[in-house]
Fold each of these.
Amino acid sequence: MFFASDNSSPAAPEVLEAIARANEGYAMPYGNDPIMERVRSRIREIFEAPEAAVYLVATGTAANSLALAIFNPPWGSVYCHRNAHIEEDECGAPEFYMGGGKLVLLDGDHARMTPEGLEKAIGFTGRAGVHNLQKGMLSLTNATENGTIYRPGDVARLTAIARAHGLPSHMDGARFANAVVSAGCTPAEMTWKAGIDVLSFGGTKNGLMGVEAVVIFDPAKAWEFELRRKRGGHLFSKHRYLSAQMEAYVTDDLWLRLAGQANRAAARLSQGILSVPGASLVHPTEANAVFASWPRGGHRKAQEAGAAYYFWPFNQSLDGPDHEPLSARLVCSWSTTDQDVDRFLELIRG
Amino acid sequence: MFFASDNSSPAAPEVLEAIARANEGYAMPYGNDPIMERVRSRIREIFEAPEAAVYLVATGTAANSLALAIFNPPWGSVYCHRNAHIEEDECGAPEFYMGGGKLVLLDGDHARMTPEGLEKAIGFTGRAGVHNLQKGMLSLTNATENGTIYRPGDVARLTAIARAHGLPSHMDGARFANAVVSAGCTPAEMTWKAGIDVLSFGGTKNGLMGVEAVVIFDPAKAWEFELRRKRGGHLFSKHRYLSAQMEAYVTDDLWLRLAGQANRAAARLSQGILSVPGASLVHPTEANAVFASWPRGGHRKAQEAGAAYYFWPFNQSLDGPDHEPLSARLVCSWSTTDQDVDRFLELIRG
Amino acid sequence: MFFASDNSSPAAPEVLEAIARANEGYAMPYGNDPIMERVRSRIREIFEAPEAAVYLVATGTAANSLALAIFNPPWGSVYCHRNAHIEEDECGAPEFYMGGGKLVLLDGDHARMTPEGLEKAIGFTGRAGVHNLQKGMLSLTNATENGTIYRPGDVARLTAIARAHGLPSHMDGARFANAVVSAGCTPAEMTWKAGIDVLSFGGTKNGLMGVEAVVIFDPAKAWEFELRRKRGGHLFSKHRYLSAQMEAYVTDDLWLRLAGQANRAAARLSQGILSVPGASLVHPTEANAVFASWPRGGHRKAQEAGAAYYFWPFNQSLDGPDHEPLSARLVCSWSTTDQDVDRFLELIRG
Amino acid sequence: MFFASDNSSPAAPEVLEAIARANEGYAMPYGNDPIMERVRSRIREIFEAPEAAVYLVATGTAANSLALAIFNPPWGSVYCHRNAHIEEDECGAPEFYMGGGKLVLLDGDHARMTPEGLEKAIGFTGRAGVHNLQKGMLSLTNATENGTIYRPGDVARLTAIARAHGLPSHMDGARFANAVVSAGCTPAEMTWKAGIDVLSFGGTKNGLMGVEAVVIFDPAKAWEFELRRKRGGHLFSKHRYLSAQMEAYVTDDLWLRLAGQANRAAARLSQGILSVPGASLVHPTEANAVFASWPRGGHRKAQEAGAAYYFWPFNQSLDGPDHEPLSARLVCSWSTTDQDVDRFLELIRG
């Protein structure tokens, strides 16, 4: 009953096996290993993007920060949701890598920005000219930090607004697999066909040990990416171990299967919670995270039994009468079992 | 009838004379000129702060950015009002000088933050720990961008909240003189006695050609300031010309006299506008700027006669019926005359 | 016969096994896993430094850059050898992480700086004061980029000079194990007992997949390190996989055994080369790398047989008469076998 | 007898008068004043460069740092002489503004780099690729820090090497006027006709209070310059006072007349020193600075009489027998008189 975060789940067995296989003999360093060659081809195939530049790094913060830094100048504004990971959870890494930049924070229900909100934010001119930061780029998180998703049409509407102002678009896809599975679309439909220029293609939260790909659909910025990655200390000498993980991930749709499992677990959990008297959802459950509220009595039982999850917002207290509801975040991963879910539901039903 | 900005007014005659006097023979460079020695003493005297470190730079953006950079680390948040100059008008200079940092934007009427808003913003913890930016410092603009002021008691209440969280406080005093004159307090009461650690003591908008002092009340950060100033290209070799301007400014209360003149002109303008049928104030007039609304007919007359000022917000149109009011910003300076004001009032009265 | 670099060798079997063991169930993220707890204890024990702060990152560039950044301000000079990895192989990462800084390049035979050279460099004042970068810190690479080592006495002499000027000292120990084994000293003798303040304790080149520890002997800078690591995107969510590698490394002296094997292979190779007519050493062989020169005929035979290594300097041509010597770098690792070495020697003997 | 530096001389009377004239009424801020319009035209005319972008800043460090930052990326190397002002006297400002970058230091007599040295430095590849800083740009200081100059042919030979590697070229012309006067060439011949892409066109050391122009011959980088200038805090609101100084400077060849006066004074001083028994020149006198050596007895007489100048290198002692020579730097400016020179010569002759 571990729902604290998908970043606490183990790596999938296929991934461990791939690493073991990669551990034979000598391999060229720094991404020149033959596995990476295959990874690049496979990712281009998956995304129907034969020209895309594909790179691996080991953390999502690195993927996002580097992806933003190659498109947004030090004096550019990045339009993102107020709850975006780049704003809330990266301790200023994007600004560090961009050498400046400013995140302009948009509101929007369920961690999704709206076309109207984006148009207003980008259209705002203030005392235009050299005194302000310049319009820079758009960054969408998909799946969002609230467990919702943008569908391809949503993405397209937002990137079209950015493009109309001459701005490129980034997708933070730390949970990209969960979003794609949920939307039932192709990776291409969710990204470049919907106007995305650069994607952080997450693996770590979905069964890898620690690998994210950055997919740059127009490779003009590829060399700059390589230099920035190196300067950031994110170019691995023994790169084959990143390559091997990612190869396993994109082989035989492992990434989609793992995400499917996580999403199904979340759906089961979400539906189960809704059947608890006094419970309700805080955000719709569209990917692998459930944001819900249920009576404190159920919380107490679950916690006594060792269930791991966060109250959401964090700084809430369990104190209070049994029937009074309290909201929480429950994140499922590829390794969440039906038994975990069912046992948890039993507990909170009191 | 020039009310576009106080940064468009000329330098006071005393300042020109001081520069001419300073232009005799050779002088030690980089702030080692004897005039600077006197400036330092005089500013310490004015602020009743015999230990304060005092430095000169030529722009307000430099003063603010350097003042923030010596107190706020690259991973620190600066709490400021949403309309602060450091957010809206410096193209990211504070973040550039801090090597990161993030401005946390607070709301509040008339460009003033409230104790409640500040407490809430600083108290917010989110997913506490290493993932977030850390609590950094407070920055107040006084007089504010809306022509209002914080009185010493207001300042003290806000800095006390910051201090309770271990945070230092900065005052952007680009219009410090106008605020002090308006509040009728001493410079010390408005700053260190009210908890301010570092002040941008503006001169440019109030009769100098281009000089701002940075007053650091605890001199422990003085050497770091000097290094950052040099690295920013803001250490003048022929420093005597900055010193001379500032000496004139702090001699015989010139700075207070000039600000008094600007404030009185604004008050006259403000009261005059209020007597125009259909006119109203957008913000209280507490310093040298008037934010008011009056009928478009009056705007048309004023503009035809060559009056210079900005609609506020900027992107408004003059189109519309004569009686329909339109809001504007009018900034007075030491050189605004009663005749200017009265002629302008006559015009907008239609 | 792979001598191109130790970063191309596989991971040791113990390391793979540790990763597999770590892959059970859920684990707290971001370094809060129980394995990391044990790693910290064990490294403190090995270094006889019960207070030391210990952190893991995945690349040597990250370890060095972060280690330098917590000690050297943006306006500080880092004194290092002209051939140091931080100067030659990190694409400016140290300067990026320090937010400035300047590497002052010292000469010295065999990639070792001398006390005289260091004293002269630190003692140099130029136009002292605010116009110059300030004296910052010392950085030693041990083992060096030329396969030589500093013994504890050498380290102590150099750090004493730095300390006399108030400067801290860093050791880039990407090949720390090789240096310690070669010197026959304890880890403590090579580091804090010899005046080192912060160590990049390398694992990647010596049998890990990609882990380096940063050991900060005085933990006062620990929190700053954590913030900088996060901002750099180097805090792993699934940290247990770094922890597991490092635990295997420091268990049962694996790190020393692997390095011993690499050093012995290099010694065997070095001695063998010296017995080739026309061959000579370019640098003494003191760790796991051999810098030697031998006739082009031998090079041709080795290359035809598929031996992998670099000419050194790089931009040399194989063209020329058979007897004319050409210099090269040969790096051994834990996985270099006697057979590899002997077969190679046979080939170059012609 | 003030020869410590040209940055200690006063402003020329024409400059003060221009400032007084500019101090009439209101003027548009931020470089939109009508004087700047004329300055731009006049500088384009002087440089025969009708498309050039022309900007003003107040310090040489700002001019150099911004000029480099628009051409050199954070991962680029700037090739400059070891004694360049950007290396020795700006406390890392260029690296701060470039967001990285590295100065590659070239040797060369009399502070002049040689074509051979430059070719070797740029041609050096090391472990080419992503691991190193990339080739960035060339920066020449003219007149040099040793009082010598590059003639147009020298400049052209060096920029041609840079260009052959695809690199742009910067000229630090803090003493550009002295170099042009000495070479007897046109400003165009010394700059864009000789391959210079961006010039720091100094005024401060040659009779202004504190103004330098940056002349960008290809205006494609103009907008980026404006943003970087603003972010650096170097955009003046009351810009007219910079404009006025520069207008005086480029009117009626004032800049050339002032530099001619300084150069003539240096020549007189240099020749006079050579006639002193035991004296010799350390560097040829080609602009406004004299580097010479003469007996300690003469030094003592000069210093007792109050002559101001620096021993060169700085850290020399006056102790020693009267006849033993000691080297020094003597800088003349537009305000150095024949009487000053002659009196000084009389003193050191003993």
Amino acid sequence: PDLTPGQFNLVYNMFSFTIATMFAAFVYFVLAQKNLAPKYRVSMMVSALVVLIAGYHYFRIFGSWDAAYALEGGQYVFQDDQPFNDAYRYVDWLLTVPLLVVELVLVLGLPKGESGSLMARLGFAAALMIILGYPGEVSGDASLMGERGLWGFISTIPFVYILYVLFTELSSTIQRQSGRVAKLLSNARLLLLATWGFYPIAYMIPMFSAGYPTETPGAVVALQVGYTICDVLAKAGYGVLIYAIAKAKSEEEG
Amino acid sequence: PDLTPGQFNLVYNMFSFTIATMFAAFVYFVLAQKNLAPKYRVSMMVSALVVLIAGYHYFRIFGSWDAAYALEGGQYVFQDDQPFNDAYRYVDWLLTVPLLVVELVLVLGLPKGESGSLMARLGFAAALMIILGYPGEVSGDASLMGERGLWGFISTIPFVYILYVLFTELSSTIQRQSGRVAKLLSNARLLLLATWGFYPIAYMIPMFSAGYPTETPGAVVALQVGYTICDVLAKAGYGVLIYAIAKAKSEEEG
Ligand SMILES: CC1=C(/C=C/C(C)=C/C=C/C(C)=C/C=O)C(C)(C)CCC1
Ligand SMILES: CC1=C(/C=C/C(C)=C/C=C/C(C)=C/C=O)C(C)(C)CCC1
């Protein structure tokens, strides 16, 4: 749809903000590693990779957004020959979402056998969730009972599995940690729930906007803004919390 | 040929995915070096160079693909004045394939005299394989009995030589390693076989698609997707396995 300058620029500037945030977070996570015990450094390295990959994709998303609209007569008019590429987000998530769960498991510092199986199961479920959500995202039929609703529903199954593992299996592991670390870990788990939980909500916006996407500028903008806020919190914000956990554990274990 | 948006975008997004993966792998291999004994660091450095070179080439390939097609009336129309440049791949391989065999030999940790000769022979054969495959790739005559088939056949001779060396000469060397390392090394050799083996298969796709490339959009897409998956596994995936080997050897040798 065509956008007002305010709508177009809101998204444009949020993308730029996110590029800056991701690359700055990358530098921070790389440099902060040396404050940690060697055992926990790999977790920060994974964090660094996540925000680097995200920075790259926001750079592409920004370019695609910029090319998809042109200012004509005071309105940002959608360019049919250069459509906005939704897939960058999903490609990004396909790489980063499994890494985010790996990061959480690594910072737990479990014995090798246990952590390998946890990472494999959670990483696989995370990738499956993203792959199953994609056909709904790009489908022309955005209704609740249509393709968007159907794929969204199927993609929720691995999502629920991930939450189930985090909130049942992992609970005893978290309780085994010291008071301060246990607190931080259960915060990280909550941050994961709080940020990840907004993705399906954002995904649902178009379902309630008849005529999406061609006739609903508001829903197009809300979806981009929603996903972007989630990404900043779920990647950079989450990485800072993982750093705090790794720091606390490094200090405790001397 | 002209492509549907689905075909064009599949290749487009896979190229973008690969750029992100290669550069993230580069950062990982550079930073992970310090976890290894100094003796094995050079092998990871070679891995890092391989994915850096590949990231650069995928950046170019992505740009070339994007410029070679334009969206007109719902179809991606091939632009005669900006053809897709196949040569980027071969230039990339010419640099990276010899480095990949060097990497494998380095992680074996052989005495100096032995490893030098192995690297020289395998690296030379690898370069020869790529050079001989190129005329067939760009030939207009893609048939099995035509130029593509002929050059493909000639290029298979150094390929078979490489496999012969890896699976005969190297076997005794691998058996001399400890149980865990021997297992990892023979996995690396199998991953090499599994990923390298798909390149000639992808190369053959056009041979069975009459009218390639102008009349066969499916074969054009399948070739790009096939080569891209191989490259991710043969460079980044393989590098991770080499890292695991180097880590295991570092720990064993204290
Ligand atoms: C459940 C569900 C979804 C969940 C997506 C999630 C949870 C994405 C998380 C992304 C993260 C954490 C990215 C940043 O790092 C989809 C695919 C929207 C489709 C609708 C159903
Ligand atoms: C045998 C053969 C080929 C083999 C190519 C190979 C084995 C390429 C490997 C490339 C790698 C490993 C790149 C990434 O790092 C060609 C040239 C397709 C031509 C047909 C015959």
